[in-house]
Design brief:
The protein is built from 22 helices and 23 strands. With 577 residues, it is α+β, with helices and mostly antiparallel strands.
């Protein structure tokens, strides 16, 4: 109640405005979750541009007159699928939006206020689309490049930590072996960029004559001979790491057993140009027998593709938010590798990266990324993620898995899992080889098989292509995909049967035995319910089925609820008249 009273003052302040503004929206009974999510994105981004510490959506106040009319919208009981609305909205926003619903007991009616904090590390996207508020209109941020550029600048992405000059550091703080490796790699970069092979000998000869300052200036590692943070990260001696304090410039390799217990670990410091090869050497990339499609003979190949491993690790270095103070981690499990780095995932989503052949316009460590490209540590920006997915697809291995859950301190984190075994050989081979499927759709089907959530937009797209069936969040591959992949039996188990089948089972049981306890009904039905449902959902399914049959008079319950038995009702064949 005290919180409700405290909100009366900001409510009256908003009502006193002459009209809706870029950070204020009045609604009556809007309850569409997707539209609410779009408002969260638009208002969080608009709050940054307007310099406001809050943005608001207010239910129960009439637009125009700002009179209190009250609202029936209740976000605290509203659900999307089987998820609470608030949890669903948070999962659909990237970066996770900071917002809260409040109920205000106004004398003239019930009010709901959605308090939205400004975006912080990157513009907030909802279902992979970034929105903005223009006056009182909600629109896509990409349609307003001037505002998008200004928004990124205000969020600090133009302030490139990696390109800052380190005062006190000199060329003597560079590792000689790392500098020699940088010369070789930068020369390879120049050769690759020069189509005229007749000039290659000249390029090699020139590169050998450059002194260290010239080499590093040309490679955009240093700035006019001055040492940058990027230069120390890539080429610095381990004892020079103090120049980066409080940054913990390390890569931790951790080996865990099948119970997730740590067997051993080792930290690797700077220079990262050399450390990545040392981490790579520690990973037990054993040779496994793999059965290619269309052959009876297994082929020996490494569990992990070497390029995919290096790309994943180099991406962690390139995109780590070093200001957060954490290490880059490479955790090796018996069947998978997990790479993680701190920092917000800057592109709108992984799906966006697969669909667009160009990189995002902004990156956190642009100076570091430019240097890593010239040292051939990463591909041209934007192509690496797609190539990782395509490589795994060509190997008939599960696609990479990205997750964006924060760490224990609440810092944003990107985690990438590379699976080193085929989980379902027939499904994987048949699905991956279909050239009529876009890589993006293969990714979404891969998510369905792994029981990962889809956004409503993604689900609609797959349903339109007749690739999935079911309801949120319990989607499963369609009969069409099951036919391709030899999963017809699994398809039937996931789809289940219509309610008439389950009703007949209950009625037949009662006709045979006269009565049944809830436990006996559970034993009768549980094994026949769709496999896609979890234990709680199966329990709800049976409860709803019995309630519906009871309302229709097919069955009736006798006795106290805890010990009740079910019998045939007057509406059932052979029931009481």
């Amino acid at each position: 109640m005290s919180q409700s009273i405290a909100l009366l003052e900001p409510l009256e302040r908003l009502r006193s405005l002459p009209r809706e503004a870029a950070t204020v929206e009045f609604k009556s009974n809007l309850d569409r979750p997707d539209e609410i999510g779009q408002y969260i994105s638009a208002l969080a981004n608009a709050a940054v541009l307007e310099g406001h510490d809050r943005a608001w959506v207010v239910w129960g106040v009439e637009d125009g007159t700002h009179a209190v009319k009250g609202t029936t919208f209740d976000p605290f009981v509203r659900k999307e699928g089987n998820q609470a609305l608030v949890m669903w909205l948070q999962q659909m926003t990237v970066p996770r939006a900071d917002f809260a619903f409040h109920q205000v007991d106004h004398p003239e009616g019930r009010i709901v206020m959605l308090e939205i904090h400004p975006a912080r590390s990157a513009p907030v996207a909802f279902q992979n689309i970034r929105y903005i508020r223009i006056d009182s209109h909600k629109t896509r941020l990409s349609d307003h490049p001037d505002k998008e550029s200004r928004l990124w600048a205000m969020l600090g992405q133009k302030d490139d930590w990696s390109g800052e000059v380190v005062h006190g550091a000199t060329l003597d703080d560079f590792d000689h072996e790392a500098v020699a490796a940088a010369r070789r790699r930068f020369t390879e970069y120049l050769l690759k960029s020069e189509p005229d092979s007749a000039r290659h000998a000249q390029i090699r000869a020139e590169a050998e004559t450059w002194d260290v300052p010239t080499l590093l200036n040309k490679a955009r590692i240093t700035k006019q001979g001055k040492v940058t943070r990027s230069a120390l990260l890539l080429l610095g001696k381990d004892e020079a790491a103090h120049f980066l304090s409080p940054v913990d410039a390390k890569i931790s390799w951790i080996l865990r057993d099948n119970r997730n217990r740590t067997e051993t670990s080792q930290p690797f410091g700077i220079p990262f140009l050399l450390s990545t090869d040392k981490v790579y050497a520690r990973i037990r990339n054993v040779v496994i027998e793999h059965m290619p499609d269309g052959t009876l003979f297994p082929t020996a190949l490494p569990r992990y593709d070497a390029w995919v491993m290096r790309e994943a690790l180099h991406n962690c270095i390139a995109h780590q938010d070093y200001r957060l103070g954490g290490k880059i981690n490479v955790v090796e499990h018996p069947d998978r590798l997990v790479f993680s780095n701190l920092g917000q995932f800057i592109p709108p989503s992984v799906q966006w990266m697969l669909e667009h052949q160009s990189p995002p316009e902004h990156y956190r460590n642009q100076w570091l990324i430019d240097g890593m490209i010239r040292l051939r540590m990463i591909d041209q920006v934007g192509s690496g993620i797609r190539r990782m997915f395509e490589t795994q697809r060509e190997r008939f291995f599960p696609l990479p898995d990205y997750s964006f859950d924060p760490d224990e301190q609440g810092h944003p984190r990107v985690e990438l899992t590379i699976t080193g075994q085929v989980l379902d050989v027939k499904y994987t081979q048949m699905l991956m080889k279909r050239n009529d499927l876009e890589l993006y759709h293969v990714l979404l089907l891969d998510q369905v098989q792994k029981r990962r959530a889809l956004s409503p937009e993604q689900a609609r797209e797959l349903k339109a292509l007749k690739l999935i069936e079911g309801r949120s969040p319990n989607y499963f591959v369609s009969a069409r995909v099951a036919e391709w992949t030899g999963q017809r039996a699994r398809y039937i188990r996931n789809r289940g049967f219509d309610d008439g089948y389950y009703r007949k089972l209950v009625v037949d049981f009662l006709q045979s035995y006269g009565q049944a306890s809830r436990k006996e009904i559970d034993e009768l039905l549980l094994a026949k319910l769709p496999e896609i449902l979890d234990a709680t959902q199966k329990n709800h399914k049976i409860r709803n089925l019995l309630q519906a049959m009871r309302r229709e008079g097919l069955i009736q319950r006798e006795g106290p609820k805890a010990t009740a038995v079910w019998r045939l009702g007057p509406g059932a064949p052979g029931g009481l008249s």
